[in-house]
Amino acid sequence: MSVNTNITKKERDCIVSIWQGSRSGFPVRVSTIAEAMKVKPPTVEELLERLESKKLIERSKGMVILSEDGKRVYRRIMLGHRALETFLVQCGDDADKACEMISNFDYMIDEHTASLVLNRLGNPSECPHGRPILEN
Question: Apex CA 36: angle with CA 32 and CA 42, to 5°?
Fold first, then answer.
């Protein structure tokens, strides 16, 4: 992947919040992202500046969307998240606990590693929470 995948945990959380907030097809507001992340709007503004410099988001008049590269980064994050979450649940961990823990480092998992885990697990189509492993 040629996309800049060198992101921080807070940037990961921001990307996920933007994705979740814009599922209805509309851009998301800074205040909505701040509320979802439980931080103040100035913190979100700083994160958005960093994500914009990495070309992972687009902003206009207080509204934010993921760029095509941002969407690819989100899908990679979710691929790693759901692969490792599924693995931990198959090892006997609680799904919610696994999900919370994996959120702390899923952004560091590359597609190759996630694919190896999924292959070992028999290539499941859904995570333990019923979400598709491969995000559209």
Answer: 65
